[in-house]
Amino acid sequence: MSLPPGFLDELRNRLSLSQVVGRKVMWDTRKSNQGKGDMWAPCPFHQEKSASFHVDDRKGFYYCFGCHAKGDAISFVRETENVDFMEAVEILAREAGMPMPKRDPRAQQKADRRGQLAEVTEMALQFFRLQLKRGGAEAARGYLDRRGLKPETLDRFEIGFAPEGWQHLWDHLRGKGVAEDLILGAGLAKASTKGKNPYDVFRNRIMFPIRDPRGRCIAFGGRAMDPNDNAKYLNSPETELFDKGHSLYNQGPAREAAGKGKPLIVAEGYMDVIALSEAGFGATVAPLGTAVTESQLQLLWRISAEPIIALDGDTAGLRAAMRVIDLALPLLEAGKSLRFALMPEGKDPDDLIRGQGASAMQGVLDEAIPMVDLLWRRETEGQVFDSPERKAALDKALREKIKLIRDPSIRAHYGQAIKDLRWELFRPNRRAAFVPGQGGKRTPWRGKDGPSFNPSTKSSILVVADDAVQTRLREAVILATLVRQPDLIVEFDYQIDRLDCADPDFALLRDKLLDLAHHGDTADLENRLADILGPGVLENLFALPHVAIAPSVRRLGDIETARMTVSEEFAKLQAEKGLTAEIAEAEEELGGVADEAVTWRLQQAAETRNRALRSEQEDNSRYDIGKNGARINRDEREALDRVLGNISFTKRPR
């Protein structure tokens, strides 16, 4: 089967080699540098104790200095899974969420055409560069000179000029024997609606070539010289070579510079990238004049774990930064985040560098803030929270944003960061209790030893002291059941992924269950997990008393009992989380001031939780555990015993 052009490039762009390899090796944390994509481990291809196996995550290649094994993600899967090329591609495509293309007998023909289009685009680039040196480009050269671009900079970024007129490039390429359909297919000309010859897309514009990571010229961006032109900047139309949402300007050089330790900066336009690069910030890219897309975010994270978004310091730039936040929240993972460098109002990086120098730009980058701080700023800036309703509206808006984060660990850390910021905002402005005789002033009402609490409030807070223990017990039953009934993992994958698992062994087991199930690799699961995690993790899990007696664990093959148990335990965990959240919110609102309404909320939440626990205990008390692990209703058993007691049995002779 032939793959369509660009499929493998897209597959490699979407995957992180360190994640693919990480399923088979244990990284040497002392030697590895995850932020730079520089990872080391003992080689999986030969027996060794030292970490001589190197993964360069940015370039997408591995190499062993011991046995000299080398390759990319596809070759790694081929060697470790003992599959052929297409099977390896299918495995990785499933992991990347890419559907495998249908068989295309014309794939080679399309690949040849893409090569021809790249050659035509390269010819256009040389034409534009030549035109910049001719008489008709005097105004363009003057503009570039005023912007501070030296001749060597023009050469480095291959800047050119598209002359004014309708068919200069068309005539040039046709004179070189280039077929009309290739010129049109490369996005360099458009067909006329008036029955005339096609006309050039770019006219009277300074031209910036756009190259893919492999170095091929795939498109152009053009800056208009006519101030009355409808589009100040114009990009090539999308073609078989060029997908604007999957490309970045200056991606190849930026990746190389980031690999040498430079911070990855995301600017808004071509001139910003050039100015930053010339000022020493070589790892700079731009999203081609559009809002950053999900595909571009993934490309950025392949280059750097924490790119810095440095958009223009105007209203449009801030709006663009806010859109990036909404796009990035669901995609955040450990080692994948963003920081934001807030440019001075009305300035872009090019303005700042030309006006104040590279040191001023470095100062802005040094003060780049985490994404959570900019999210907080967006929701709070310019607003007054002087009423419970306004505070509640803020809490609701922030909760909705945090819910977008899929990674449980990141979500928890964002929740804590927002809680800290909320405390700083409201604590100094907290309304004090009114005390008669103080001239109408409000002062904090405190007891002798600090904040005064109703005794029932104190007891309600203590009710949740054993929540962590209860949660751990439920997680243990769920995980043990899934190990014995792996067919249920995919069915409950969303709930499994949301398990917090404070116990590190549980967290590791959770991740491996999901990983193996999503790759259809659950045969002989218990033994495989023992090999991966070591025998101690499963032995400790199944040795827990409440796990050992669970019917869902003891009854091998009874999938209905297992399904019911897992479903019930997840439901109880969710209910407990809701109750705990209610108590936590009420506690937070206390803020050192006695409040009868908050005290009442704490009491109600605690009583609700107690009723739930008593109900579960009473439910369990009505059952006995039979010899086969089944739960037997005690009331029914006693009634049956009474009936049987009134029947006489005659013993059969042996």
Automatic annotation (TrEMBL):
Residues 262-344 form the Toprim domain. Its cofactor is Zn(2+). A zinc finger (CHC2-type) spans 43-67. It catalyses: ssDNA + n NTP = ssDNA/pppN(pN)n-1 hybrid + (n-1) diphosphate. The keyword Magnesium applies. Keywords: DNA replication, DNA-binding, DNA-directed RNA polymerase, Magnesium, Metal-binding, Nucleotidyltransferase, Primosome, Transcription, Transferase, Zinc, Zinc-finger. Gene3D superfamilies: 3.40.1360.10, DNA primase, catalytic core, N-terminal domain, Zinc finger, CHC2-type domain. Its EC number is 2.7.7.101. Binds 1 zinc ion per monomer. InterPro entries: DNA_primase_core_N_sf, DNA_primase_DnaG, DNA_primase_Znf_CHC2, DnaG_bac, DNAG_N, DnaG_primase, TOPRIM_DnaG_bac, TOPRIM_dom. Belongs to the DnaG primase family. Monomer. Interacts with DnaB. RNA polymerase that catalyzes the synthesis of short RNA molecules used as primers for DNA polymerase during DNA replication. Contains an N-terminal zinc-binding domain, a central core domain that contains the primase activity, and a C-terminal DnaB-binding domain. NCBIfam families: dnaG (TIGR01391). This is DNA primase. It comes from Thalassovita aquimarina. The lineage of its organism: Bacteria, Pseudomonadati, Pseudomonadota, Alphaproteobacteria, Rhodobacterales.
